[in-house]
């Protein structure tokens, strides 16, 4: 066995490929620029060569994303054009976001390319020079062999040439195998020559054994290194150095090589186990990221129709993005694909949200103009004393208000207060000045609500006589207020009873004792007067219904329909009563 040219097939010589993959896709533009700048300053050509293109890809992908976001944000505040800019530079700076960042990156990338080209040129020149040196060393060894000189001087010269070979740097890969094999063959020829002089040969064998024994010890020590990748790199260097030294004595060749190979095997197994573990982590991370993609796609495909739901799903999507950042890397072959899938779902969702809010803002602006117009109409009529016609006018405005969609939150309250103020001004004037029966009922209802509130806020004195007197006063004031609309009667009565019972234990008994007797109905003097009284009563009911329906929300669909049916019934009854009254008036006129 010739241990000098044996290779270990399970060792991966390309150590550079084993550096852990760095995912720059989640970095911001400023972070990418800082990383690239730091690498340029460090002048680590291998690090730059490995990372420059991934940095470039991540930079332009994030530039496109952040530029689109910035343009969208600027568009929502009003697009700029050259007509409203002071100069062309201002236009460029605002309409093309991140232009300085892109210029800075291009400058750094151009510097990298120039440095890389210069480095490659220097490296190629150096490798050609090294090749020339090593070929010259081979020729010098051959000259020693051709002379047949095995003296101490020639052996010393041979050793110096070996050291020169080891000191010479790398040569072009295309010539490596050929030159190395030629060198090994030439060295073996020299040793065949010097075998005549055992003393010189054995001395060299001994020196080689000492060096290779030290290599074995170094390899065995590497097995204790917890950084598996670092240990593997160091092992590759030892293998390269091992090849640079000549053979050992025949009786040690097998054992020294087996020792070195055994140490190599230990590190290789750890290295393989490490990357199997990494692969398992990558698979788990890929599964986790795939699950997030599925959730993001589910959200993306959800039909969202309200601002509340958009807010809810936006929070959910942002939570997914935070989870994504916590998950470690995946295999390089899957990294871009899974990232693009997740980013596509996020982008489509946020693009749809942007489109919704853009349309929603337009609708809210239109709604704002409509409600503003209603406010102006209400304010123009709030001082009118044509109670009946203006009541119908305000009820109609209230209906229109309810049918109009939302406006922006900061404007909604202001508009509503303005409209409600105009409505309250009219209805307060009407309630104070009008003798319409329906208005009296409405005033009574307000008075009773105020009294219920007063009872709830009453603080017991602790003196039974004083508290009993207060309770009696509340009941007397309640009975003195008068009737309320029929639809509110039971509700307001129950509220009053509940408020009294909460404050006064004997309230129910006192309430029954002081309840006024039912008023005797005075019979109408004539049929006409009876019909007029009935007409007035139903007209009051109609006004109450029409006023109340305007304040119901659109979600109260069933109640609105019920009130609308009652209004139509009352209108029909009023029309019938009006016809009957006219017939009686005509009859009275004819009799006269």
From TrEMBL:
Coiled-coil regions listed in the entry: 528-590
Keyword Coiled coil: yes
Keywords: Coiled coil
InterPro entries found in the cross-reference section: DUF349
Name recorded for this polypeptide: DUF349 domain-containing protein
């Amino acid at each position: 066995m010739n241990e000098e040219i044996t290779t270990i097939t399970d060792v991966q010589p390309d150590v550079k490929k084993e550096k852990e993959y760095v995912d720059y896709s989640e970095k911001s533009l400023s972070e990418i620029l800082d990383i690239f700048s730091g690498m340029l300053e460090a002048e680590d050509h291998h690090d730059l060569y490995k990372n420059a293109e991934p940095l470039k890809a991540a930079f332009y992908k994030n530039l496109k994303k952040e530029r689109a976001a910035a343009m969208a944000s600027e568009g929502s505040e009003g697009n700029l054009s050259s007509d409203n800019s002071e100069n062309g530079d201002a236009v460029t700076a605002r309409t093309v976001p991140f232009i300085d960042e892109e210029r800075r990156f291009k400058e750094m990338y151009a510097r990298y390319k120039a440095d890389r080209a210069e480095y490659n040129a220097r490296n190629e020149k150096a490798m050609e020079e090294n090749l020339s040196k090593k070929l010259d060393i081979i020729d010098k060894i051959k000259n020693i062999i051709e002379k047949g000189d095995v003296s101490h001087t020639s052996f010393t010269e041979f050793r110096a040439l070996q050291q020169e070979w080891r000191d010479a740097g790398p040569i072009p890969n295309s010539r490596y195998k050929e030159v190395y094999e030629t060198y090994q063959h030439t060295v073996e020829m020299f040793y065949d020559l010097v075998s005549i002089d055992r003393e010189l040969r054995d001395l060299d064998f001994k020196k080689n054994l000492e060096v290779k024994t030290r290599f074995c010890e170094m390899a065995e020590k590497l097995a204790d290194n917890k950084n598996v990748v670092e240990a593997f790199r160091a092992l590759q260097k030892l293998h390269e150095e091992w090849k640079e030294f000549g053979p050992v004595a025949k009786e040690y060749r097998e054992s020294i090589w087996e020792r070195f190979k055994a140490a190599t095997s230990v590190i290789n197994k750890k290295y393989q186990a490490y990357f199997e573990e990494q692969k398992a982590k990558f698979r788990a991370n890929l599964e986790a990221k795939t699950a997030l993609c599925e959730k993001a796609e589910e959200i993306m495909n959800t039909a969202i129709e309200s601002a509340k739901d958009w807010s809810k799903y936006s929070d959910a999507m942002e939570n997914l993005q935070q989870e994504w950042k916590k998950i470690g890397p995946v295999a390089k072959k899957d990294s871009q694909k899974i990232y693009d899938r997740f980013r596509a779902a996020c982008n489509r969702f946020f693009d749809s949200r942007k489109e919704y809010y853009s349309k929603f803002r337009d609708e809210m602006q239109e709604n704002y103009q409509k409600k503003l117009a209603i406010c102006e109409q209400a304010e123009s009529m709030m001082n009118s004393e044509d109670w009946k016609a203006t009541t119908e006018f305000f009820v109609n405005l209230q209906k229109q208000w309810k049918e109009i969609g939302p406006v922006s939150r900061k404007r909604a309250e202001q508009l509503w207060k303005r409209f409600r103020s105009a409505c309250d001004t009219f209805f307060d004037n009407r309630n104070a000045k009008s003798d319409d029966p329906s208005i009296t009922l409405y005033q009574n209802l307000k008075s009773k609500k105020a009294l219920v509130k007063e009872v709830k806020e009453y603080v017991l004195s602790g003196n039974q006589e004083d508290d009993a007197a207060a309770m009696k006063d509340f009941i007397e004031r309640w009975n003195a207020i008068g009737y309320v609309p029929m639809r509110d009667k039971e509700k307001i009565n129950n509220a009053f009873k509940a408020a009294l019972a909460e404050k006064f234990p004997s309230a129910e008994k006192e309430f029954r004792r002081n309840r006024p007797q039912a008023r005797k109905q005075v019979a109408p003097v004539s049929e006409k007067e009876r019909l007029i009284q009935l007409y007035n009563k139903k007209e009051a009911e109609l006004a109450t219904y029409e006023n109340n329906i305007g304040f119901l929300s659109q979600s109260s669909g069933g109640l609105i329909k019920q009130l609308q049916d009652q209004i139509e019934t009352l209108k029909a009854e009023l029309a019938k009563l009006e016809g009957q009254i006219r017939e009686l008036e005509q009859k009275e006129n004819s009799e006269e």
